[in-house]
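Bench notes, afternoon.
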Amino acid sequence: PATLTTEAEDPPARTARTAGTTSIPPDVPPTGSPGPGTHALDAVGGVPAAPVRLLRHFILGDSTMSRSPYLVLKWVAIVIVAGGLLALGVSLAARGFVWWVIAVGFLAMCVLAVYGPRRGVPMKYLLPGIVLALALQVFPIALTVVTSFTNYGDGHQVTKEQSVSTLIAQSVQEVSGSPRYALSVAVKSGADKATATPYYLLTDPTTKKSSVGDAQGLTDLPDSGVTKTSTGKITAAPGYDVLNAREQNGRADLKTFAVPTSDGGGIKAVGLSEAFVGKPSLTYDAASDTITDGKTGQKYVARNANWVNASGQGASLAVGWKENVGFQNYVNALTDPTLRAGFFKIFVWNMVFAVVSVLSTFLLGFLLALLFNDERVKLKGLWRSVLILPYALPGFVTALVWKSMFNQDYGVINSFLPGRIDWLGDPTAAKAAILLTNLWLGFPYMFLVCTGALQSIPGDIKEAAKIDGANGWRTVRSIIMPLMLVAVGPLLLASFAFNFNNFTLIFLMTEGGPFENNQTSVGSTDLLITYAYRLAIGGTTPNFGYASAISVFIFIIVAALSLQGFRKAASLEEVA
């Protein structure tokens, strides 16, 4: 017969008394009641809640876990995560990203240290959030700040050494009368085709002799075991894995890779199946830090991260290099006449757009919420459902619909007006069109939050105000509005931050235009975010460094205004 033990007995006595008998562990509850070692959420009506218990055992590491398969599942999950991080670290190490390898290794140790032992329960929940915050918030901000202190942009994306090698590689021209080799690109057998050292498997069209080329030069390739097509292209060779077309296109380093020849030239790929013997027209002299064009005799010197003509005339070479420029991007934004005028013009409109958008959407949403919160209104559920329809539709679809409605020739809006207003071509009309569209997009959200806030205000407060003789307007101004702003205030700040960076609406409706004075850098409806986009991506000469400086300005402005706003919201809460 089974022997039931009691909690009052000490473990030695219990062990001695139950020797040779079958005991029921104290953490196994009788049917219908949770016992020791279980949680209130683990059982409903005596039936274990498996998903809840699995999550709880995995994260908390309960005592029962040592006697259950949950322990195995936990360590299997830890091993899988650690293995994935190890594979990622190896891949990053092969590409030379030392600091990223250190970061991945530190993350793997954190996973083992946090989820291995049973202690440190809060950290088991906090670690995923910390990792995501660092990856998605802190790192992009830090990268943007670092980039703002550089000249990173079009023609300035590599180091000085890389710019020299790129220019020399780009100047290589085919030697007249030289043969064109049948080409295959390969790596050593078993090596990673995406990162391993490339090799050219070449076949001379004249002698049909095969050779293998690397960064050191050409060596003979024995014909034993080599498979070729009718054109001489090698498809298989002992000790090498041949890359297919997709794998070749994925290797950016092949654009500058060349096999040096004895006469100072090099063998470069042309297409996917041929290679030619070429010689560069540019040479670099490290002693004088100059590049010389052998064809024209012109000399280029290093100046302001560019290779400029030493004579002061003629164009610079196409590829410069990235370097630290300090606060120059910030100084240019505030002092350069052209950039400063555009920056402050955009900043003023940006503030007007954000403030007017928040106030207009809030007032309209609040008035509608106040109206439909009245008990005398019938079918309130139906009307509320209709009013939130603009919020239910995708914003980009609505923006494009409104853009077509504002069309000067075929738009619906002009069909109801006596004149033909150029809504999207006139600076003032374009701003009005954007504000109207944003009002349509934003008021349903404010209507929802205001409705919720109004319904949370106790009715006896309004009754007390009515007894004291307050009319409707006084009740709204002195009672309802202060109480509602306690709940809605933070949401207004979030709405301001969103509209301050409302890239989608501006880009879809006007792309920042219309542009005045025959220039395409600063538009009449540009926000700082669309201005930064045009500088970084949309312009003819992208300047990521300056665009990053503008982004830092945006961050500082929004952070400062939000901080002040949250302080005001806190004071409202104290008053309430």
